[in-house]
Specification:
The complex is a heterodimer of chains A (about 270) and B (about 220). Chain A has about 270 residues and is an alpha/beta fold. Chain A has 2 domains: about 180 residues, Rossmann fold (3-Layer(aba) Sandwich); about 70 residues, no CATH class. In chain A, about 40% of the residues lie in helices and about 25% in strands. Chain A is built from 9 helices and 10 strands. By secondary structure, chain B is mostly helical. Chain B has a single domain, classed as MetI-like (MetI-like fold, Orthogonal Bundle). Chain B is built from 9 helices and no strands. The radius of gyration of chain B is 20 Å and the shape is flat. The chains are: A alpha/beta (about 270), B mainly alpha (about 220). At the A-B interface, helix 2 and helix 3 of A face helix 6 and helix 7 of B.
Chain lengths: ~270, ~220
Amino acid sequence: MNTMHSPMKMDDSRAVLNIVGLSKSFGSLQVLDNVSFSVAAGETVCLLGPSGSGKSTLLRCVNWLERPDQGRILLNGAQIGISNAGVVMSDRDLATMRMRIGMVFQHFALWPHLTVLQNVIEAPVHVQRRPKEAVRAEAEALLRRVGMYEKRDAFPARLSGGQKQRVGIARALAMKPELLLFDEPTSALDPELVGEVLAVMRDLALEGMTMVVVTHEMAFARDAASRIAFMDRGTIVESAPPDVFFSAPATERARQFLQRYSAASDRSLATS
Amino acid sequence: MIHSFGIVWLHRDLLLSGLANTIVLSVLAALSALIFGALISTVLVRRARTTAHIVRFLIDVARCTPFLLFAYIIYYGLPSLGLRFDNWGAGLLALIAYHSAYMAEILGSAWRSLPQDPIEAGHAFGYSGLRLFRRIVLPPLALNAAPVIGNQIIQIVKDSAFLTIIALPELTHAASAIQSQYFVPFAAFIIAMLLYWALCLVVEACVSTLGRMADARR
């Protein structure tokens, strides 16, 4: 049985995101080691792995919030961060690429001076320069969809974590992104609020949104992901559909990771 | 005593035109100092070290100079370097330059204490440069720093009184003119003081409005 799906074998012409030979170090610590990785249109890829394995750094390199040391990142064929002339892009050109990628943050990162509705409208109107009335109607529809329409005039400080994150997702969707990145979207939430956020993300996955999700929610990864990319020590060790990954991981490192996780969840079940 | 207040009342036109000039000076100086201070603070929070060091040095020089001396240098000192201003030009320049240094310091430290996540989100959503500053950084910055900025604007109003020494016809100058002509120092200066106080109340009212806006967002 072929359980080892190499990320290199994917048909790159269909890829929304294509990462080739990405490396990144923080000082003497190499966080990403020659990572290559593709995401096809409509795929939901969950990046799993122990903490410190480089998942978040990989995600943050995609839109150059972290600047990679080496490698190429292509969004629907257009390179991010490096211009056609082969030099680092100007801030303005980089910003133009970034507005094509939505991002949802671990700590929500909503703009505190704006209401819920204003948060969603802000970037489409002021960065993408789309007409305000149309954006507003879309924003209201998005807020209805994530169940936050009633709170549209509230400021972020008045919301629970789960509510903030649902607004964060609506804000990212309002950009009509070609790719949506989630950086541990439920890690900062109280356990009882995790479900409402995962439900929204699950719907997006079903609708065919192209997403890369860094998460520790194994149940979500199992149900909603079209593929799992397992990272350890700065490389993608294994890339497989979730049923394969969870039932028959190909590598020893993935096996150990899953064992530690099920042991941890057994412990928390026993104590609760 | 009543008589001396009557004399001041007779010359209320002079006092009111002084008040108007004080308001014009203070508003122009406050707005310009805020704008320049904001621009300078963008240098302070940058990592470009040499520029930041030079700017920090200049700010420290300005902050450690008494304002009166600062005004003297601009009005009496600069002409010997070939830079000549009339009393309005010199007065405004002194107020703006001096208080830009304070505003830069105020905004710079407020900026450093802003949470970084929303600013990073601004980058991720395609903001950069001036637009990032104007839409994402500045509004929370202004709300957080409003009380300190308000204090500084009150300081601007009060410092404008020093400009009487370069014969700028502002409120203190007017009060001083009335008292020296009619020998009514107490009445003239008390009325001027009350007018300054009224100006400060207006500034404080603006600050507390901003404070309520900030509280709604916290």
